[in-house]
Please model this.
Amino acid sequence: MRKTVPLWIVLGVVVAAFLFTHLGGNRYLYFAGYFVLQYIVLATAWNILGGYTGYVNFGTAAFFATGAYSALVLILAFKAPLPVQILAGAIAAGLLGLGIGYLTLRLRGVFFSIATLALSVVLMTVVSNWEYVGGGKGLSIIRPKPPALFPSHAEYLFVVMVCLAAGAVALAWWIEHSWVGRGLAAIRDNEEAAECMGVPTLRLKLLATTLSGSLMGVAGTPFPYYVTLVEPGSVFSLDYAVNSLAMPMIGGTTTWVGPIIGAVLLGTAQQVATVTISSELNLLIVGIVLVAFVLLAPQGIVGLVQRLFRRRRG
Model:
């Protein structure tokens, strides 16, 4: 079985996105596409720890904010380019994931989830009192001139997020089809039995928290250029925790494609609701859809399709 996504597929997706940005059209489509792609990264990141390993993380906003504020500090201090910001955000959020994982992974079930939620509250309090990044008022930044190949920042950020989403999905593909994925699945099914069989459970869990946190930080790094006003209320929004959990559950948590399906469906529905009705309905839409899937298809869309296919073959 192939353990890595073929490079030509990743490059093909990026090239197609680049060509798409030169077709013209309404620039809102690029910002809406950025929104959906951002949640593909977040949902995939959450699934590495919550889906593959079985540790439910409510602290998505903390890692997302780590990436966003790492980028903001680099902008203010050095006017660093976006690729440098992305690298720094990945490292900072990954180290946060490693540290928090080392402190909390001995907790299980609801206790681990509460600990990750508390992380978001603590970091939000710290940032709200950090005047260098604007404190509770937030800070407005000016976007620099986009690279020459892009007409505006809308197209540039869209292509950047396509690259990040493709990288996140490729990483999830590798995890699922490697010994790491098999070890994480053993932890999810029965951690005590996995330990008895010699699975390095602590090391694998630390790897999962590090990779998951790093990808969440990567998703948040372009955020300052996306909104231009960075303030704690938006960066630590409850939407990130709810959506990043709901999207894999709706798509299917035991496969790399599930978070993509959930992010595309829910992300698109939220963007349509924002334009046609009100953005305040976004969490209501997520809640209704999530309850429906928990009752009717607890294994998500992928599990539902697999079950129907098995019935048809039977």
Q: What stands out?
A: The beta strands are 139-140, 229-230. The mean pLDDT is 90. DSSP finds 15 helices and two strands in the chain. Residues 7-241 form one domain.
